[in-house]
Every structure is written in structure tokens, then in C-alpha cells.
Amino acid sequence: MSKRPAEPTSPSSGGLKNRSRETPETQPPEMGDFEDNFEDEFESDDEVIEAGADGEDPGEDEGKAVEEMQLDQQVYMPSRRQLAKDEILEPDPSAYHMLHSMNVNWPCLSFDILQDGLGDERRGYPATVYLVTGTQAARPKDNEITVMKLSGLQKMRQTKTEEDEDSDSDDEAEDDPILESRSLPLPTTTNRIRVSPHSSHAASLAETGDVHIWDLSTHLASFDTPGTTITPAANKSTTLRMHKHVEGYAIDWSPHLRESMGKIVTGDNDGKIFVSTRKEDGTWATGKDPLRGHTGSIEELQWSPTERHVFASASSDGTVKIYDARANTKKHQLSVSVSSSDVNVASWCSAVPHLLSTGADDGVWGVWDLRTFPNTLKGEHVSATASFTFHQQPITSIEFHSTEDSIVAVGSADSTVTLWDLSVELDDEESRDTGGVEDVPPQLLFVHYCKDVKEVHWQKQAPGTVVATGADGFSVFKTISV
């Protein structure tokens, strides 16, 4: 599976397995360029149609123009056809409540959304999002962990009236989104980063195999508390080296309140899994012996939302395994073959704890009922509750909505983020209208283009808001569908 995005000067991404990358000579762009190409672009002026001086019917000229312009009325699916050199893909502004894109210095393989104190169930505008991410720079010394505050994210403006145009100069500065950032030096690529659900700590997995624990409380405070000083000590991490320089991509924090001090599970490309716990004095303790069972690399780890000591692992060996961290055998309790290819990603549903979604290298993603997994102990075959083959490239990210158990966000190497509603069932009459696309499942709600998308997350405090990272930076959007 290819997880690494293209470098700023490279047209395509390097593979995960070969670990090679080119070094561009050009300098990276400035941080913080928002691209809001659609906010002020659409004008709606009243038209006055008059007959020509010679009395010619103006409808004739209009008909000629229509004949000259060949309009493509077919639904365009980025995953089905590449754009031609003379084609430009533009989003339909009427399909979004909010849409913003953001350039960063270097591509980011992974990010997470930081919980803030602005309240839950936020639906108003302008919106604010706090993120933490790690870079993939061309030179190791240019890498960093970046904490960002994105504010002033306005609602999509569909049309502009003459009154709006007259006041543009007065409101222009007020309408612009704002990006603020804080950097923590880290001279290596970050493969995966996750934020604790209990504090302002983040854990990152570096390509060196090291696990870094970051306290981001000072950096977050600096955004909203004038005079906050970020000392050099605040930029330092606690480093765990139990993986002994073996690269990995899988990490997760325990969501359980009894583990509020901090508990993480990490996995590497040698198939080893470690559980580490933060002690009261702030130091970390890691089990001496790893948990084993997989014959391939560990691609994803997910703690159970209800069972304190239970977690699931997904691997390039095509299986999902369920572990109990208390087991003395250090072996899995259950194992299910979910794909004939690498299982790249997984998401454990917090709203319905017996549901687990997975995404594989062959482009197939599915939802599994964990209550059926014990049937494998009796030699029975376990099938997915729902399975979709819409994507034709590897699945790179998947995440259940935090409160809507039927809603799933999926990222794919075909450069799309798709939103799905598993509860949708269309009758025969509705299903006949396919918009010219015959292989679109009725559960598919939305398709968003994000070049070489690597990771997708829901903003839990702002229902329906999605953040994605890809080769061209970040997308922050909310659709009319969710």
C-alpha cells in the first residue's frame, strides 16, 4: 500500500514498502495559504434581454451559442476517469455548506483534531478547528510537528447581490479565514499521529520507529491567551523506543476514563504490538514482550469503546485480530480473514460497539459485526454485514461518525473522500435514476475530491464537518448530505 504522498515537486507518491523518496531543489511554499476560490466567484445579476437593432429575435443568437458549446451532462466520477489536459474540475458550491482548502509547507501523512473549549454540537459560522499534524519534508531536518488553529471558516456563499458587491471592500478582511500555527521540531517523517481523548497530549509514530509523546497544552493556550510563552522545554517530547527502530503506522489512545493518565497501543512492520501506560510521575511503562499473531505489518490499531483491555488490529496479512491486553499468552483471542489483500485501516464504532469497519488495498471496504467473530472458533466463515467495491484504488482512511452509527467517511488513493449512509435503502423507482452512473450504491451520499488523500476525520464537536489531508494540503468541508 502506498501511504506516502507526493513531494511538492513530484507527480506521484512513493510506495510504503520501498521507503525511497526524492529530494526536490525548490523551496516549500509559505504556510497558511487558504484557497477559497468559490466564496466570491459566483455572481447573480439581473439580465435585460433586448431585441437587436435590426429587429432580429435574440433567441436565434442564444440558440447558436448553445450549439457551439458542447456541454457534458454526464456525472463525473474522479475514481472512474482521469481529467484530460484541457479539463478543470470545479466543485458545485450548492453541494457544500462550507468548503476551504489550505496549503502547508510539506505534505502530511497523518493528523488529528484537538478537542477545544468552544462547545459541542456547533453548527454556526464562522467555524473554528484545532489540528495537530506531522510533516513529510524532503530533508529530515525540515520536519516538524505542527499545531494549527483554523478560524474564520465561513459558510459557502452561493450567490452575491449588488449590495454584497458594494460592501466587499469593507468585509473582505473580516471574511478571510485565519491560520495560526505553532511548530515543534522533529527531524524525521511522522507516519501517524493521534490525540489523547483525555488531555492535550499527542502521540506520534516516526519513520525511525520511535514513539513520541507531546504535551501540547502550552501551544494551544498560546492561540487564545496573549502573553503565553512557549519555552524550548515545551517543544520536547518523551520518546519511547520499544520498537527498536522498526517503522510502524499503527497507534491509538485508550478512550476509557480509567486510563485518563494515558494508555497507548502501537504496532510496527514486523507484526509486533506494544501497550504502554503513563504513570503518575509522568513517565511511561511498556510491556517487555510484544503481542504477536500477525504474519504481516500492523496497519491499524483500535481500542474497544466499551472493553477497557480489548483492542483490534488490522494487518497486511489480510486479517483483523482481537486482543485482550491482560492475556499472559500475548496472543490474540479471535482472528478473522477480512480481505485477500492488505487491510490498511479500521474504525471501531463508538455509537454501536459491536460494529467495526475496515478498508483494504484492493479498494474494498466493509462493516463487520463483531458478535459473529467467535464463530471462527467453531470453524465457521464470517462475512461482512456490508461490503462495497465502489473504490478501485486502496482505501487509505476510514472513520465512523461519532454519533450517527450508520454514517462512514472513507478516503481512497483514487483521490476521493466519500461519505456513506448504511441505513439508506432505495425502492425500485428511486434506484432507476442513476444520473448516468450505473455502479453507484444507494448508500453513497457524497464524493469530494482531495488529491492523493491520506487521512480523513470527523470534527466531533461540529457535526458533519470533515477534515482531510492529501498531497495538496488540507480540506475542511461540510456537505449538504450530512
TrEMBL record:
Residues 1-65, 143-201 are annotated as: Disordered. Residues 86-153 form the Histone-binding protein RBBP4-like N-terminal domain. WD repeats lie at residues 291-333, 388-423. One of its GO terms (biological process) is ribosome biogenesis. It comes from Morchella conica CCBAS932. Signal peptide: none annotated. InterPro entries: Glutamate-rich_WD_repeat (IPR051972), Histone-bd_RBBP4-like_N (IPR022052), WD40/YVTN_repeat-like_dom_sf (IPR015943), WD40_repeat_dom_sf (IPR036322), WD40_rpt (IPR001680). Keywords: Repeat, WD repeat. Residues 186-201 have a biased composition (Polar residues). Transmembrane segments: none annotated. This is WD40 repeat-like protein. The lineage of its organism: Eukaryota, Fungi, Dikarya, Ascomycota, Pezizomycotina. Pfam families: CAF1C_H4-bd, WD40. GO terms for cellular component: nucleolus. Residues 32-60, 162-178 have a biased composition (Acidic residues).
